[in-house]
Amino acid sequence: MTLQTPNIAVRVVRIEQASPLIKRFTLQAADGGPLPAFSGGSHVIVQMPTASGLIHNAYSLLSSPFQLQQYQIAVRREEASRGGSAFMHEHLAEGDILQISPPNNLFALHASSGRQILIAGGIGITPFMSQMEELQASGAAFALHYAFRSREQAAFVDELTARYGEHCHFYDAAKGEQCNVAGLLQQMTGQDHVYVCGPQSLIQAVQAAGEAQGIPPARLHWEQFAASTQGGEAFTVVLARSGREIRVEGEQSILQAIEQDGSVAVDCLCREGVCGTCEVAIVQGEAEHRDQYLSEEEKAAQKSLLICVSRARTSRLVLDL
Ligand code: FES
After folding, report:
1. 142 part of a folded domain
2. Most buried of the four, 34, 86, 109, 251, by CB within 10 Å?
3. Domain residue limits at 272
4. Does pLDDT of 228 surpass 80?
């Protein structure tokens, strides 16, 4: 890869089935020492040596920021997995060693004298678990609104209830329960912040409700799990500095193809098109932008693209790498 920061070797010390589709992994430093400090909402990038090459996925840390002898992550088994979640679910065993990045936080809590309103959909519950540790410890006012398809499919409901009690509100779609996002935002006061993590439809509902109600964008925060990398046509990326040509398959991102090739290192933090770290200049060709970072003007200018999510409109894309 590609990460410019040194990786951390961790041992998988425990694997638990948190729901039919979600496993929780407990990781400890391979050298037995404490792991780097992190804040609620942080993620790490896990390297997965699959049969088709090295895959890197970002996972939120759901363990306590006050307990650095271990990290915990949760991974949902994705039907359309290109190998990452399948590797974690089917090939990883207790005792195995993994390489992970140091924690980064692109979804941090904002200091506020008001309430912190956390809205989770499905596996989007994970960043809130470390955030709630912080909120509980600081005595902050907060509420979790956690929506899921069914109680059987939902992870961590019992432990959230046991730990945070009346702070938690659950919405079981199988029972016809729905989280009234607009209603929640209507109750916000001037100092409250709202955070949402989950499927794009949930994030869009919060964004639309916030816009309709005139809530300042600085008080709305979101983290999207499934980046819009639904794939597309295969194309060729040319690394301008070496002339090397790399095929990007239909279900691959440019970043993944470059990582598998291994000839050049690229920085990346979120792998979701939101942080801007992986921005690369376009030398020739046109990008199909899929990120949430560049402005519409920057996208139209076709001077650069974010290679973790964006693709090519042309059969060849020459990049300044
Ligand atoms: S790694 Fe964050 S935008 Fe690409």
Report:
1. yes
2. 109
3. 235-319
4. no
- Of 73, 80, 91, 92, the C-alpha closest to 155 is 73
Whether residue 252 sits in one domain with residue 213: no
Atom of ligand 1 nearest to the CA of 269: 1
Asked if residue 123 lies in contact with residue 76, where contact means CB atoms within 8 angstroms, the answer is yes
Q: Report which of 17, 23, 19, 26 is spatially closest to residue 98, judged by C-alpha positions.
A: 26
CA dist 320 and 76 (Å) reads: 35
Q: Indicate the residue among 201, 224, 247 that finishes a domain.
A: 224
Q: 187 and 279, same structural domain?
A: no
Regarding the beta carbon of 184 and ligand 1, being less than 6 Å apart is answered no
* CATH at residue 264: 3.10.20.30
Number of domains in the chain: 3
HSE, side-chain direction, 13 A CA sphere, residue 152: 3
- pLDDT grade, residue 230 (50/70/90)? low
Q: What is the pLDDT confidence band of residue 2, given thresholds at 50, 70 and 90?
A: very low
Q: What's the whole-number mean pLDDT along residues 189-217?
A: 94
Residues 65-119 pLDDT 10s: 999 999 999 999 987 665 788 999 999 999 999 999 999 999 999 988 899 999 9
124 and 214 share one domain: yes
d(CA 81, CA 58): 14
Q: Is the CB of 43 under 6 A from ligand 1?
A: no
Distance 291 CA to ligand 1 centre (A): 8
Q: Let me know if residue 175 belongs to a domain.
A: yes
**pTM, entire model:** 0.84
CATH code: domain of residue 30: 2.40.30.10
Instruction: Indicate whether residue 278 lines ligand 1 (CB < 6 A).
Output: yes
Residues flagged as binding site: 270, 275, 278, 308
